[in-house]
Amino acid sequence: METLPKVSPAQCLLLRTAARRPDGRVIPPDTLRGGARVKVLTALLQRGWIEHADGGYLLTDAGYVAIGQLRPVPLAGV
Predict the structure, then answer these.
(1) What is the DSSP track for the chain?
(2) What is the value of pTM for the model shown?
């Protein structure tokens, strides 16, 4: 059985919140500021769990896997 990677509480919050958004956009909360914000985002980028996109960040397939989820498949024709 495969184990999930270690994810910090702040990383988990960002990944799970992004996974609930239809576009998978990562939006750090206002409570995550300064060096803490940079540290969390850098760690997620280095692990390939998020990627740069349109001046922000998007959750990658690896990011979904890190929290035990699969990327949702968009409904065709909707």
Answers:
(1) -PPPPP--HHHHHHHHHHHHSTT-EE---TTS-HHHHHHHHHHHHHTTSEEEETTEEEE-HHHHHHTT--PPPPPTT-
(2) 0.82
Let me know: does 66 contact 15? Beta carbons within 8 Å. yes
In this structure, are strands 50-53 and 25-26 parallel, antiparallel, or unpaired? Answer: unpaired
Q: Per residue of the chain (78 residues), what is the pLDDT tens digit?
A: 455 568 888 999 999 999 999 899 999 989 989 999 999 999 999 999 999 998 899 999 999 999 999 888 776 655
> What does the alpha-carbon distance between residue 47 and residue 66 come to, in Å, rounded to a whole number?
10
